[in-house]
Every structure is written in C-alpha cells, then in structure tokens.
Amino acid sequence: MIPRHLIIGMSAMLIVVLLMGIYVWRMRTRVVELHPSSADTRAVAPPVTGRTEQVTLFVAYDDSGILRPQSARIPLPAGRQQRAEELLRALVDIYLGESAPHRLARGAEVRNVYLVNPGLAVIDTDSAFADGHRSGILEEELTVASLVETLSANIPGITRVKILVDGKERETLAGHADLSGFYDVSAVGKMAEQMQSASQ
Fold first, then answer.
1. Is 134 helix (H, G, I), strand (E, B) or coil?
2. CB 148 within 8 A of CB 187
3. Helices in 55-184 by DSSP H: which ranges?
4. 50, 93, 110, 168: most buried, per Cβ within 10 A?
C-alpha cells in the first residue's frame, strides 16, 4: 500500500504543475494579444547576383518635405530591367526601416519594373504599397518623386514613368498623387528642386 504522505505529496505536485500550465498558457495568450506578429509578409526574393556598385538613391524626408540624394552600395545584375528593380527595392527597404525618414506600410514592395520602350519605365507595386500609404499631398508626391528620381539618376534614357498597383492602373496613390497618367521625368525633377528651394 502507498503511504498517505506520498499520495498527498504527489497530488500537491500535480496541482502545482496544472496551475503552472494554466498560468503559462494565459501569459502566452496575453503576449500574443498585446504584440501581434510583426513578421515581414513580403515574398522572399532570390539573392541578387552581380557586382556591388555605388548608386544614388533619392530618399524622401517628411519633416523637411524634400528629397536628398544618398549614396549606397548594392549588388546589381547586368540586365537593365533587373537593375531598375533592385534600385527601387533598395529604396523601399530604407522606407521600411525603424527610423525611416519617410514611412511606407509594412509589406510594401516594388514587384517589377518594366522598361517598355525607349524612355518608358513601368513600376508595378503591390497592394500594401498603395493601400497602406499615408494619405496626404506631400507624402504621396514625395513617394512618387523619390521613385522617379532614383530610377532616372541610375538608369539612363528614362523620360517617362508609369506606376501600377498589382499590375493594374489606379487613379491615385492614397487619394492625391495621380497614378492614372505618366510622370514626365524632367517635370518631376523640377518639382523636386522646388521642394528643395521651398524648404531652405
């Protein structure tokens, strides 16, 4: 026969283990509720192969309402179209960082860049890029100008840019910047200069 004190001890230990399990389960549930998963939902692209090159990215700064050229070293493939895609992906990565001077929504990405005919570049973004974009004239114009200026500074010969969302035409980015037409690179460059001079 099992001694009575051993039965009591085992019962007490079983109750403690059960209570600890309930406590851990409740704490885990609270952590999940307080901190939803912040995993990056963007598709994982294959690693880029190519020489690392010095490029100029035109980074938007919301506080001063300007674009600033920023040097970066990124691997670039040989193909002109793939180079354009990697340039814009490097730019978007800056905007997804914790201390970004101009924020884009989590999951925002440039899916593809198509160099259709001499002078025309078509940028295809995902829905998170547009649906999660902050609405406002300045914020939207800075995003568009940043994309256009970065492309034109690093890919010679681009004179017009069209922006799509999930492969489709969209009227505006987030209510203001017109995406229904084509952006003239020289006009965007002048607009960026005006922003620069207005902030000084």
1. coil
2. no
3. 80-95, 127-131, 137-154
4. 110
The β-bridge partners of 57 are: 70
| Distance in angstroms (rounded) separating the CA atoms of residues 138 and 125 | 19
d(CA 20, CA 135): 48
Q: Contact 57/72 with Cβ under 8 angstroms?
A: yes
Q: pTM of the full predicted structure?
A: 0.73
Task: Specify whether the CB–CB gap between 96 and 110 falls below 8 A.
Answer: no
Helix, strand, coil fractions of the chain, as percent rounded to 5: 40, 20, 35
Q: What are phi and psi of 18, to 5 degrees?
A: -65, -45
| DSSP H stretches of helix in the chain | 4-34, 80-95, 127-131, 137-154, 185-199
DSSP 173: S
For the record, the structure tokens of 153 come out as 């500074």
87 near 57, Cβ under 8 Å?
yes
- The two tokens of residue 103 are 């924020």
- Local confidence pLDDT in tens for the 200 residues of the chain: 678 887 888 888 888 888 888 888 777 777 655 555 444 555 555 555 668 999 999 999 998 999 999 999 999 988 899 999 999 999 999 999 989 999 999 999 999 999 998 899 999 999 999 999 988 888 999 999 999 999 999 999 999 999 999 999 999 898 888 899 999 999 998 988 887 776 65
